[in-house]
Specification:
It is a single chain. This protein is α+β, with helices and mostly antiparallel strands. Helices cover 52% and strands 15% of the residues. The protein has helices at 2-34, 38-42, 47-65, 67-75, 87-97, 100-109, 135-140, 181-194; strands at residues 142-146, 149-156, 159-168, 171-178. It has a four-stranded antiparallel sheet.
């Protein structure tokens, strides 16, 4: 019985230590952003994964705003991969927006000048806010998706943002951001205007 209790305690300690390591990685990213150290921020960002995360959400939001395109996709399943906002075009625009300086500003201040964030479309809380109330509060607002992926939640008037961190080697890197529906809708409309509401119907 004593061995079982000892093993259980050891497991709890290991889980807590691992969780603490993951949170420390997010805190280091937040610290680099608060210093405006774009180079240090980019060492902890998976830019390709981040861009895909955002463009995918924006594309889905565009489809939801355009039910006629959803009907077209239902009638022509072969168009499903391309109908609606061209995800590749959205991703290309986002890549131009996601510069090291802009990412650092977004993580620190929750907004940047220009790009899809113009006019305060995002209003995302700074990542550092997750740690202002201490590590216990940060742990309560975070959860693991898998052993190599966890999410830090950030509450805002628009809803909750989710900052995704993935373990790559020995470094926890930003790999995506879950955006509240109200925000993805606004960003989708702006990007659609910038790319002319680009629609790519494969085979048409």
């Amino acid at each position: 019985m004593r061995k079982v209790i000892g093993a259980a305690v050891a497991l709890v300690i290991l889980v807590a230590a691992y969780w603490g390591w993951a949170l420390a990685g997010a805190a280091q990213l937040a610290s680099a952003a608060s210093r405006g150290d774009a180079a240090a921020v980019m060492e902890r960002v998976d830019l390709t994964a981040l861009s895909r995360s955002l463009s995918g959400q924006i594309s889905r939001a565009y489809l939801e705003q355009n039910p006629q395109l959803q009907k077209l996709m239902a009638l022509h399943p072969g168009f499903g991969d391309g109908a609606g906002l061209n995800a590749a075009a959205a991703e290309m625009l986002l890549r131009a927006f996601l510069t090291p300086e802009n990412i650092a500003a977004l993580l620190n201040q929750g907004r940047v000048a220009g790009g899809p964030d113009a006019g305060g479309l995002w209003r995302m809380p700074g990542l550092g806010e997750a740690f202002q109330a201490g590590p216990l509060r940060a742990a309560m607002n975070s959860y693991f998706v898998s052993p190599l992926s966890f999410v830090v939640g950030l509450d805002s008037p628009d809803g909750r943002y989710g900052v995704h961190m993935n373990l790559a080697g020995a470094t926890w890197r930003l790999s995506g951001v879950d955006i509240p529906d109200a925000v993805t809708g606004r960003i989708a409309r702006e990007i659609a205007q910038r790319i002319g509401g680009s629609i790519d119907l494969h085979g048409g």
